[in-house]
Design goal:
The chain has 538 residues and is of the alpha/beta class. The protein contains 18 helices and 19 strands. 41% of the residues lie in helices and 19% in strands. The chain binds 2-acetamido-2-deoxy-1-O-phosphono-alpha-D-glucopyranose and magnesium ion.
């Protein structure tokens, strides 16, 4: 295989540990950095092939998001979305090919997908702040160049910034300019347009990661219309350690190192700034969390109202996963009367489902999400802005909608962009965080993790809400759920960690905790639990 001569030669500098197998999971590969060099090299190869295949620029982001220790990699498709599932399979095959089989696997992919070597390849590369990310990025670039591809290294960027760059490049700058300055200018202009009436103040937990760095860079562009008090900015603390969106959501508690006054609006980014969670302490000093479901509610409600004011008949739908709080789903369906649909966990599934609507608002409960506008919806809104006969109220609403479109990163969920959208919408509505919080009350809930010998023994259906295998587990869950009021529970194998996740909700926290514990026990006994048996929560 003469055409792969350079691959054979270079791959020896990025050797695969024998016997190591990894899988492209919910959001790419994740494992300890010392096992990732060969994966990065091979993802460089794959990105080059994907670029040749799609005749477009492809993105490779080096990050493990909210994981504290590991590193990882995600591939970005031409419109800035996650790589298509068929190629996730190729990614897994390539990552696991033993050294001597690498070129054969490459050749097979090229033959199956009819990829011509003579096509050019362009790959955008970005990385988070983990110390290992720099050398892993070099391995990606090595892989790209082995197939004659050209890499553009954006250095330190948030994951959504790299998605944005890819989308800009492949839409020939119609979406924006593929530079950090272009990103800051576009979003800042839209934000300032939306919040002409005054500045917003906010406490931000940067998870000691890349989001903190990039928010600092952006402050000047925002002309201080947004006053940010930035905590966990990476100057001393450890990435994702006792802070960040995942920590806050899972522990339902404020991050360390943040000084919150009562009623002050606060938010946390995750380690690569593609998730955001809001919270505050109420007057009684209780911690109150506003998660992705509440963000989706605020955004969809505001868009619906603006569309009505603009006199536009455009449908708004919300896409959630099984982790969405039952109260949120009920509020959206019964009170707001919006279409709600449920997909499997993982942004790629939500993103895909949201594309079916005029306006698809999608959020995972953990704060990962964005809004997608169909071409037609965007056209109608922009036409109304230009329409000279529209009355003032309609014009005002259309302008606000148009600026909201500009402020949203439609390539993927983006903590910085989502934060600006939320701040702008709250300002326009004159709504406090307390007012937003009281739209509905979350059902108490609990998430637990169970270690099993092989998490793949659990197979689910109905957007992961029902277990098909192992036999008996779903019946056991159904029986347990009946013991509690307003209860719901489900289990699924994680796609990012070697565990099974358990989710339960009920009318009281004790109920949610009790149900989550009982379901964990059922998983432990029926799905091959390892280590210590789960214990009741204190
Ligand atoms: C319950 C939960 O929060 N799961 C997360 C987590 O996936 P798991 O497959 O559950 O490990 O990481 C994903 C990637 O960041 C994110 O998309 C998803 O929502
Ligand atoms: Mg993330």
């Amino acid at each position: 295989m003469a055409e792969f001569g350079e691959v054979s030669q270079k791959s020896t500098q990025h050797p695969k540990p024998k016997g190591l197998t990894l899988q492209y999971g919910t959001a790419g590969f994740r494992t300890t950095a010392k096992h990732l060099d060969h994966v990065m090299f091979r993802m460089g190869l794959l990105a080059a092939l994907r670029s040749k295949k799609t005749k477009s620029t492809i993105g490779v982001m080096v990050t493990a998001s909210h994981n504290p220790e590991d590193n990882g990699v995600k591939l970005i498709d031409p419109m800035g979305e996650m790589v298509t599932p068929a190629w996730e399979g190729y990614a897994t095959q390539l990552a696991n090919a033993e050294q001597e089989a690498l070129c054969t696997v490459l050749k097979n992919i090229m033959e199956t997908d009819a990829i011509s070597m003579s096509e050019t390849a362009n790959v955008f590369v970005g990385r988070d702040t983990r110390p290992s990310s720099e050398s892993l990025t070099k391995a990606v670039i090595d892989g790209v160049s082995c197939l004659g591809g050209h890499s553009q290294d954006y250095g330190l960027v948030t994951t959504p910034q790299l998605h944005y760059m890819v989308r800009c490049r492949n839409t020939h700058d119609c979406y924006g300019t593929a530079t950090l300055q272009g990103y800051y200018e576009k979003l800042s202009k839209a934000f300032i347009e939306l919040t002409k009436n005054g500045c917003c103040m906010l406490l931000v937990d940067g998870a000691n990661g890349i989001g903190a760095l990039k928010l600092r860079e952006m402050e000047a562009f925002l002309k201080y219309e947004l006053q940010v008090a930035l905590f966990n900015d990476g100057s001393s603390g450890k990435l994702n350690h006792l802070c960040g969106a995942d920590y806050v959501k899972v522990h339902q508690r404020a991050p360390e190192g943040m000084h919150m006054g009562p009623g002050e609006r606060c938010c946390s980014f995750d380690g690569d700034a593609d998730r955001i969670i809001y919270y505050y302490n109420d007057t009684a000093g209780r911690f109150r969390l506003l998660d992705g479901d509440k963000i989706a509610t605020l955004i969809s409600m505001s868009l619906k109202e603006l569309l009505t004011q603009a006199g536009l008949n455009i449908q708004v739908a919300v896409v959630q996963t099984a982790y969405a709080n039952g109260s949120a789903t009920r509020y959206l369906k019964d009170v707001m009367k919006v279409t709600v649909c449920c997909t499997k966990t993982g942004v790629k599934h939500l993103h895909h489902a949201a594309q079916d609507f005029d306006i698809g608002v999608y959020f995972e409960a953990n704060g990962h999400g964005t809004v997608l506008f169909s071409k037609e919806a965007e056209k109608q809104i922009r036409q109304l802005v230009k329409h000279s006969n529209a009355n003032d109220e309609k014009k005002r609403a259309a302008k606000l909608l148009a600026s909201t479109i500009d402020l949203i990163n439609q390539a993927t969920g983006d903590a910085i962009s989502d934060m600006l959208v939320i701040e702008a919408l709250l300002a326009i509505r004159g709504m406090s965080i307390q007012g937003w919080d009281t739209l509905y009350t979350d059902l108490p809930n609990r998430q637990l993790r169970v270690k099993v010998a092989d998490r793949q023994v659990i197979d689910t259906t109905d957007a992961e809400r029902h277990v098909v295998m192992p036999a008996g587990l779903q019946d056991a869950i159904d029986t347990l759920v009946k013991k509690y009021k307003q209860a719901r529970a489900f289990v699924r194998p994680s796609g990012t960690e070697d565990i099974v996740r358990v989710y339960a909700e009920a009318d009281t926290q004790e109920g949610a905790d009790g149900l989550a514990y009982e379901v964990s026990l059922a998983v432990y006994h029926l799905a091959g639990g390892t280590g210590e048996e789960p214990k009741p929560l204190k």
